C-alpha cells in the first residue's frame, strides 16, 4: 500500500469517528448511560473482529502468558475509557468540537511519546512539529469556540 493510499485510508476511517460518537451517544440515551453504550459497542465490535479473523484465516499466534508484560493489556482499557468518555461528552460539546479536542490531545500526546521514544524509535519534537501542533490548537479554538453560547441540545 502506498503512503498516499495509507494516509487516505486513515482520513476515511477518521471521518467515521464523529458518526460513531453520535451513534454511541444515542445508544447511551436508549440504554443506561455511556458505559453501557460503550460496552455494547465493544461487544458488537468484538463480534465483527472475530468474524474478520475467521474469514481472513488469521493464525492465533502465541497464547497470552506470563511473558507478556502487564501493561500490554492497556490498549483495551484505554480504548474502553476513550469510547465511554467520548460517548458521554459528545452531546455536550458537539461532534466537531469533540473530534477536534480529541485530535489535539492525540497530537500533543503523540509529540511527547515520539520525542521520548516511548514504545518506539525516538523522533524529536522539532520546531516544525511544534508549529504544526500549534496550528492544530488554533483550529480547535476556531471550531470549538468555547466563548460562544452553546446551542440547545436536541
Overview of the molecule:
It is a single chain. By secondary structure, this protein is mainly alpha-helical. The chain contains six helices and no strands. The model has no long low-confidence stretch (mean pLDDT 90). This is DMT family transporter.
Tell me the layout of helices and strands:
Layout: H1 3-15, H2 17-30, H3 34-56, H4 74-93, H5 95-116, H6 127-144
List keywords for this structure.
YdcZ, transmembrane helix, 154 residues, DMT family transporter, 2 domains, 71% helix, 0% strand, mainly alpha
Write a short abstract of this structure.
The protein has helices at 3-15, 17-30, 34-56, 74-93, 95-116, 127-144. With 154 residues, the chain is mostly helical. The chain folds into 2 domains: 1-59 and 69-93, no CATH class; 94-154.
Question: Over the alpha carbons, how many angstroms does the gyration radius reach?
Answer: 18 Å
Q: Give the beta-strand count.
A: 0
What integer is the average pLDDT? 90
How many domain regions?
A: 2
Profile the largest sheet: none
Number of helices: 6
Shape: globular
Q: Structural class of the helix and strand makeup?
A: mainly alpha
What is the N-to-C order of secondary-structure elements (H for helix, E for strand)? HHHHHH
Distance between the ends: 42 Å
| Percent in helix | over 70%
How much of the sequence is in beta strands?
Answer: under 5%
Low-confidence stretches: none
InterPro entries: EmrE-like (IPR037185), YdcZ (IPR006750)
Pfam families: DMT_YdcZ (PF04657)
Organism: Luteimonas colneyensis
Keywords: Membrane, Transmembrane, Transmembrane helix
Amino acid at each position: 500500500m502506498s503512503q498516499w493510499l495509507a494516509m487516505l485510508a486513515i482520513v476515511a476511517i477518521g471521518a467515521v469517528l464523529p458518526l460513531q460518537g453520535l451513534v454511541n451517544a444515542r445508544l447511551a440515551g436508549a440504554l443506561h448511560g455511556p458505559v453501557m453504550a460503550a460496552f455494547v459497542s465493544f461487544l458488537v465490535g468484538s463480534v465483527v473482529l472475530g468474524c474478520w479473523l475467521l474469514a481472513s484465516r488469521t493464525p492465533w499466534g502465541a497464547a497470552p502468558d506470563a511473558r507478556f508484560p502487564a501493561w500490554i493489556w492497556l490498549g483495551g482499557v484505554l480504548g474502553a475509557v476513550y469510547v465511554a468518555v467520548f460517548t458521554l461528552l459528545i452531546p455536550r460539546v458537539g461532534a466537531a468540537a469533540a473530534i477536534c479536542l480529541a485530535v489535539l490531545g492525540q497530537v500533543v500526546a503523540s509529540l511527547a511519546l515520539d520525542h521520548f521514544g516511548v514504545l518506539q524509535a525516538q523522533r524529536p519534537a522539532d520546531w516544525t512539529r511544534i508549529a504544526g501542533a500549534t496550528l492544530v490548537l488554533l483550529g480547535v479554538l476556531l471550531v470549538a469556540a468555547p466563548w460562544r453560547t452553546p446551542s440547545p441540545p436536541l
